[in-house]
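Handoff note, outgoing to incoming analyst
You'll be picking up this chain. Sequence as last confirmed:
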Amino acid sequence: MLLRLFVRYSVFLGVGICREGELPFLIAHLSLHSEDGERSLDMGSQIGRENQAPILYGNLVSSVEHLEDLQGNMGLFFLFPDVSVRWRGRYQLGVTLSRISNSDASGVHNIAETGTHLCRVRTAAFDVVPLNEYAAAPPTRLTQAFVRQGARMFSLLSGSGQS
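Most recent structure output, in case you need it:
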């Protein structure tokens, strides 16, 4: 899964919501929700109360990557190459964008003790089918372009399955 970050600027403040120096400190985290979005289905990284493995698994956290899109424009992307949902059903994915730094009086960025949530978004509801009904889509041109630029993604382009 690929997510693109668009940084908007405040007309009133004359500054960006996120300054260039903060980009290395941005992370996106995926979460799983019920079809209607009312219930969080995340159980954390630990085995759940009933010794059940987490429903959503794979690399659920990504830092920002500077990559060129198919039109030759540099963009900010979060890459989630191996996210999977364990059980069939209908779900929504949530994405939380956080900043894990703070600035001192001189503008120097330091790792913060706690992250600051900048925004949350959700996907439309989607279906997860049983494994025997699943057919993986071929890599997209955008995915192939990112792999050629050195993005660390699982890919059918390399013989080892990972580049």
